[in-house]
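User: What would this chain look like folded?
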Amino acid sequence: MIVRPTSLSRFMLCVVALAGCADEESNTEVVVGLTTNMAVGFDFYELERTVKVDGVVAQSERLSYGAGSLRLPAELRVPTAKDGATIELSLTAKHIGEDVPVVTREVGTRVLGGQSLLLPVSLDEACAGVSCAANTTCVKGACASPFLEPSSLAAYDPAWMQSAEDACKMASSGEPAIVVGKGQDAFAPLTEGEVVAIEQGPQGGHHVWLALRVTGLRQMGSTLKIGGVYPDLDYKLPPASSLATLRKAGDHCELYGIRFQVDRGIEVESVRGLPLDVDLVLTDPTGDAATAKTRVVIAP
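Assistant: Here's the prediction, encoded as structure tokens.
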């Protein structure tokens, strides 16, 4: 006996087949995990990126630190493409207003149907000024093929960014730590109990210039919270917080030009010559944090 499928059974088979295709397409993607060991905003300021799918430009944009669109590490989503499609990414990092690149990077792979892959790409300080021949790119200071076999890529997991390294947070950095210093234009040591000069700001308040030496915390996106107490007056200054971008300085990073107002809610004449206990907390986007305390004396 021959059993012929009914119209309803044919319809259901089509639905199942289409659903399977839809599920495979929804799970097919390439996510670029972009990192750098250079200091964004200092070593380079802008990043141009172009994505090609099977040789056709699918995305092209310029990211800028000044505009707030350039923040690393970051994920760059590649446009959805069919199984076997070739993905090519070109990156050019530049200083603001300059045509000569600081560093360039090329990378490519293929899409694997039904798989979500993480394509790691780093902008390496060792590649600054390095020129490679056609069909090669600079990786960690040496020219190499830009193509990565999809079989060599890890499955995409958004948790990758938690352990990603940058200019200020590397495996060799150790535990998060900050050292309090002083300075508007550079870091200078600050001794416990040091007398510090105050300046009047543009809005009438008075401030001191503080600085930090930092290890083990992200270069971008950290939150700095500062508070203070005048023990002789039993007066607590309202805390202030701001986002911080660190500058690379050898084996550590620095932040200077931190304006801390010393007369918020209190007359400046009443604090001259008095000790001020300062508390600082720097917390990076992963939740890692470092704290420091120091005592200064406000100049008479």
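The radius of gyration is 26 Å. If you want, I can go into more detail on any region.
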